[in-house]
Amino acid sequence: MHELSIATAIVEQAEEIARTDGADGVSSVTVRVGELAGVVPDALHFAFEVAREGTALSGASLVVEQVPALAWCGGCAEEFAVGMPPFFWCPACDRPSRELRSGRELEITGVEPVPAPT
């Protein structure tokens, strides 16, 4: 399950971001995961729960924003969903696409620190 190595990297990077920002802990991490990134969101959630134990993210939640795979057809200037399994053939003009616009993302987009005690 490669999601465990991905989750471990997310935890490590989120800890570094929190330290840099002077936070003691993290309450949530938001990641964008493309449809073609080869990551199963449910497996990533499970792996994150394992990877966060004993870290500054021990109580953190993982928010996964799924990004659809979209291609661009230069021939007719149409953007279209490629689906799963991916099919890079333009449904509007019946020609192959050479440009994938989204769907391979795997990135941290937000790290929410634990609120400071008042």
UniProtKB/TrEMBL annotation:
Gene3D superfamilies: 3.30.2320.80. Pfam families: HypA. The keyword Zinc applies. The keyword Cell membrane does not apply. Zn(2+) binds at residues 73, 76, 90, 93. InterPro entries: Hydgase_Ni_incorp_HypA/HybF_CS (IPR020538), HypA/HybF (IPR000688). PROSITE patterns: HYPA (PS01249). Keywords: Metal-binding, Nickel, Zinc. Ni(2+) binds at residue 2. Belongs to the HypA/HybF family. HAMAP family: HypA_HybF. Involved in the maturation of [NiFe] hydrogenases. Required for nickel insertion into the metal center of the hydrogenase. NCBIfam families: hypA (TIGR00100). This is Hydrogenase maturation factor HypA.
